[in-house]
Amino acid sequence: MFTALALAASMFAGCQAYERPGERTVGELTDDVAIHAVIKRRLVADPQLEGLRINVDVHQGEVRLSGRVASESLRAKAVRLAGTVRGVVRVQDHLHIVTR
Q1: pTM for the model
Q2: Where are the domains of the chain?
Q3: Which pLDDT belongs to residue 19?
């Protein structure tokens, strides 16, 4: 019984608002790791984006994309894809367009 209560409490802790700038609770860190994993998986799965060339950093729900893409439309696609992930509060675009 205690284990079930502890598990439920930890699940709710990850859903709390980011109230202390610069500090992350275990739940917030877990949320950021999950956001990172979903975004990176979607970037890599898209054959046009070459997701291995895009770096993803997440801190308190804010996503920073950096790296290289082949066109402005692919840049917009990557930013849009990241912004649709649950838990993302903002996407910072630091992508560079590099033509081959």
Answers
A1: 0.73
A2: 2-97
A3: 54
- For 89-100, the pLDDT digits (tens) are 999 999 999 986
CB 68 within 8 A of CB 96: yes
DSSP 2-70: HHHHHHHHHHHHTTS---STT---HHHHHHHHHHHHHHHHHHHH-TTT-GGGEEEEEETTEEEEEEEES
Longest Cα–Cα distance in the chain = 60
Q: Tokens for 95?
A: 């992508």
- Asked if residue 47 lies in contact with residue 39, where contact means CB atoms within 8 angstroms, the answer is no
Q: Note whether 56 and 43 are within 8 A (CB).
A: yes
Angstrom distances, CA of residue 63 to CA of 14, 45, 50, 71, 93: 17, 18, 18, 20, 9
Residue type, 86: R
Which CATH number does 2-97 carry?
3.30.1340.30
